[in-house]
Design a protein that fits this description.
Strand content: 15-25%
Bound molecules: glyoxylic acid, manganese (II) ion
CATH topology of the largest domain: Aminopeptidase
CATH class of the largest domain: Alpha Beta
Number of strands: 18
CATH architecture of the largest domain: 3-Layer(aba) Sandwich
Radius of gyration: 22 Å
Length: 417
């Protein structure tokens, strides 16, 4: 059994029309559907309409996660859940998250066409604010569903304009009434674009994801003293901009030193205040994003960074306030499911390899409550992502979803794993 690759791709393109904008850096058409924006609401409603066309039973929970259920022969049994997200970073392509959700719906369409019944129910789900770009915490909806974060914590998150997450959820019409805690599914599966260069460079068709690396996000407020750029003597300055630059360069130095393994680090947001040519920055709002496949080395790097903040405070006469906005450990996916994915790729005549996820994914939250696994599809142009250049071909997408279909059919007919 095979999905209809053209139909899947047409759905990806149609959803990609919502929130489209002209990207200045690339000159391409990008996608901006920030979590709980009007565009996210429109994208969600389109996907919801497809779920309803497929006669799925839809439920929306109190954090806005949406589940669409296809009945099995034994509906009291735990379902197999296929999920991902349809929110995007502000400078996205069409595939990140959407492939997993629309791939799930294409699988359901295929099963309906072929009149396939399964023992267990199947649910296709999308989760609120996976990206974390707007409210500061990634994998938010799935983390609440699986119990890592509370609903209260999530509701009180605010965006840069002070808008509260709960109010925004209500505003776009996705403040549901169902219990946000999900019962443990039989298994959770997610298909996603790799978002990196490994599969593309090797020409490998399917990635069998071994796990997800640890993520640590901080919001920094660096407080110095603003003053005249020409008239303030250098020794009287407390330049928050210089302090921020020191931290950014320190991150590179830590990576170059090699003692933190395969650490990655990014200061993705850096805003000097008042941010004018002839004023010493009196304040900088910034973020730090750390990634590491090793939990131990992640902790070591976090401690080293905090120690460095104290050095910068002294050297530059600034105050550094930091807040942890997201923190997830490295997660390993079910080895039995990885074996099934590799075997399904073999059966489909597809080359495959084991790969660790560079990005965070909803699957890592489900791994805490049930066997979970992911399939990666390669992306062109070194798998670039969080960029409008993000691009996977219809075949690249369909290969991953077909592997997922094969594994899903096995799991949905199982009494036990
Ligand atoms: C979220 O998906 C991230 O990895 O930043
Ligand atoms: Mn994603
Ligand atoms: Mn993303």
């Amino acid at each position: 059994m095979r999905i209809n690759s053209d139909r899947l791709y047409a759905a990806l393109e149609q959803l990609g029309q919502i929130g489209r904008y002209q990207d200045e850096e690339t000159g391409l058409q990008g996608v901006c559907r920030l979590a709980l924006s009007a565009e996210d609401g429109d994208g969600r409603r389109l996907v919801l309409s497809w779920m309803r066309q497929l006669a799925l039973e839809v439920r929306i929970d109190r954090i806005g996660n949406v589940y669409a259920r296809r009945a099995g022969r034994r509906n009291e049994m735990a379902p197999v859940v296929i999920g991902s997200h349809v929110d995007s970073v502000p400078t996205a392509g069409r595939f990140d998250g959407c492939l997993g959700v629309l791939g799930g719906l294409e699988i359901v369409r295929t099963l309906n066409e072929q009149k396939v019944e399964t023992l267990r129910p199947i649910e296709v789900a999308f989760f609120t604010d996976e990206e974390g770009c707007r409210f500061g915490t990634d994998m938010l909806g799935s983390a609440v569903a699986c119990g890592r974060l509370t609903l209260e914590y999530a509701y009180e998150l605010r965006d840069r304009d002070g808008l509260r997450l709960r109010d925004e959820l209500e505003r776009i019409g996705f403040l549901g009434e169902c219990d946000e805690r999900v019962g443990p599914p039989h298994a959770y599966l997610e298909c996603h674009v790799e978002q990196g260069p490994i599969l593309y460079r090797k020409g490998v068709e399917v990635g069998v994801v071994s796990g997800v690396q640890s993520i640590s996000w901080q919001a920094l407020t660096i407080v110095g003293k603003s003053g005249h750029a020409g008239a303030t003597p250098m020794d009287l300055r407390a330049d928050a901009g210089v302090a921020a630059s020191m931290i950014n360069l320190k991150l590179r130095e830590m990576i170059a030193g090699g003692q933190y393994g395969e650490m990655r680090a990014t200061m993705g947001s850096l805003s000097p205040v008042p941010g004018l040519v002839n004023i010493v920055p009196g304040r900088v709002e910034a973020t730090v994003d750390l990634r590491n496949p090793s939990n131990e080395l992640m902790q070591k790097s976090e401690a080293a960074l905090l120690a460095y903040y104290a050095e910068v405070e002294k050297a530059e006469k600034v105050e550094i306030r930091w807040r942890q906005t997201a923190r997830t450990p490295a997660v390993a996916f079910s080895s039995r499911l990885q074996e099934r994915i590799a075997a399904a790729a073999e059966r489909g005549g597809l080359s495959h390899q084991s790969i660790i996820a560079g990005a965070g994914h909803d699957a890592q939250e489900f791994a805490a409550i049930c066997p979970a696994a992911m399939v990666f599809c390669p992306g062109e142009y070194d798998g670039i992502s969080h960029n409008p250049r993000e691009f996977s071909t219809p075949k690249q997408c369909a290969d991953g979803v077909n592997v997922l279909l094969d594994v899903l059919l096995q799991l949905a007919d199982q009494e036990e794993l």
